[in-house]
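Figure 3 (text version): structure tokens given as input.
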């Protein structure tokens, strides 16, 4: 049975939340509902300096280490961690980085974490003691460097920056982020002014396999870029997602396999019109070999993050709502758009814990037992 656990992070109306939670559970005992809302206790380990309130924080960085442990990160230099499925969450504002917006992170294990900050100055910091101390492992005072996301495959890592002089900047590491160097851009595709990537959920760049990666873009045009390390080959594929302005394009993708064929499920839209769905092609399914669009959906509002729950079921979320997309057989069907919306979704490798994070310090859990 699938359980949705809704995390509530405000200290107001605690009694009412508890009352309605008990009422819901009593109702469930007498029904055949497949899903149950179960409110959790408020976290008791909030440790944010200067009395910063969580509703002033926007979470876009998210990593689910296993079925019990997850980390989140966001604006105002705030990070959060739970190792008991959200029953208790420890929050901390990193005072040295109180002006940083940590829009992506990677968790190697319970002690080793990387945070990447979008905006100026661009930086990546690392902790090897479960967040007690942090060390800068990448920084740039070039205002043109804007970190859109990071991703790792074992010790090997990627970091995507917005274009400089007409080319996307990809940095790589081979030692868990301790040192970074710029990938040779001599053969990288030249792009037009006004094309860039988005740091809405930290999922615009990802490893495809041990030797290749991909990222998606938006702006004046929206493309899928693929690179193979061994052959040093770039492939560019134009996406049928709404585009043309700086706020439109592809924002996120995830990898899925159907009947042995590899696909990328890509979502996007217009983040300034997050309720727009008519003629707003915000989802497409791209077959990897050869590169071609298999299916599109244009009744989906702006979505900034997508993950696979199963080969035939995707979970997408954006600021205006969260939805399930079914890709069974040759048809795509869209589940009912649920409120609220979030910026990012992530899951544990075994799929037993899914976390969603968004504005005003909101987190929700979806647990598969």
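Below: residues designed for each position.
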């Amino acid at each position: 049975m699938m359980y949705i656990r809704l995390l509530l992070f405000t200290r107001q109306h605690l009694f009412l939340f508890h009352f309605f939670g008990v009422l819901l559970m009593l109702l469930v005992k007498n029904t055949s509902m497949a899903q149950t809302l179960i409110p959790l206790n408020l976290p008791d380990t909030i440790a944010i300096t200067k009395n910063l309130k969580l509703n002033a924080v926007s979470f876009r960085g998210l990593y689910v280490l296993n079925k019990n442990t997850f980390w989140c990160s966001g604006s105002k230099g705030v990070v959060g961690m739970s190792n008991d499925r959200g029953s208790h969450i420890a929050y901390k504002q990193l005072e040295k980085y109180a002006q940083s917006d940590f829009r992506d992170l990677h968790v190697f294990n319970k002690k080793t974490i990387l945070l990447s900050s979008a905006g100026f100055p661009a930086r990546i910091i690392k902790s090897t003691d479960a967040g007690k101390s942090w060390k800068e492992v990448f920084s740039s005072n070039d205002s043109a460097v804007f970190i859109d996301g990071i991703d790792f495959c074992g010790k090997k890592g990627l970091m995507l920056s917005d274009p400089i002089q007409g080319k996307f900047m990809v940095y790589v590491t081979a030692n868990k982020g301790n040192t970074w160097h710029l990938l040779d851009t001599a053969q990288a595709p030249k792009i037009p002014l006004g094309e860039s990537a988005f740091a809405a959920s930290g999922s615009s760049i990802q490893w495809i396999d041990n030797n290749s990666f991909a990222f998606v873009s938006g702006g004046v045009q929206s493309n899928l870029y693929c690179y193979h390390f061994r052959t040093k080959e770039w492939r560019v594929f134009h996406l049928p997602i709404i585009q043309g302005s700086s706020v439109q394009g592809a924002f996120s993708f995830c990898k899925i396999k159907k009947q042995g064929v590899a696909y990328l499920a890509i979502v996007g839209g217009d983040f300034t019109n997050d309720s727009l769905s008519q003629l707003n092609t915000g989802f497409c399914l791209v077959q990897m070999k050869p590169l071609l669009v298999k299916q599109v959906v244009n009744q989906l509002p702006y979505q900034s993050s997508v993950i696979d729950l199963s080969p035939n079921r995707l979970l997408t979320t954006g600021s205006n709502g969260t939805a399930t997309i079914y890709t069974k057989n040759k048809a795509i069907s869209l589940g009912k758009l649920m409120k609220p919306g979030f910026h990012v979704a992530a899951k544990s490798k075994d799929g037993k814990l899914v976390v969603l994070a968004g504005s005003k310090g909101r987190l929700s859990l979806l647990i598969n037992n």
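Residues 1-48 have pLDDT under 50 and may be disordered.
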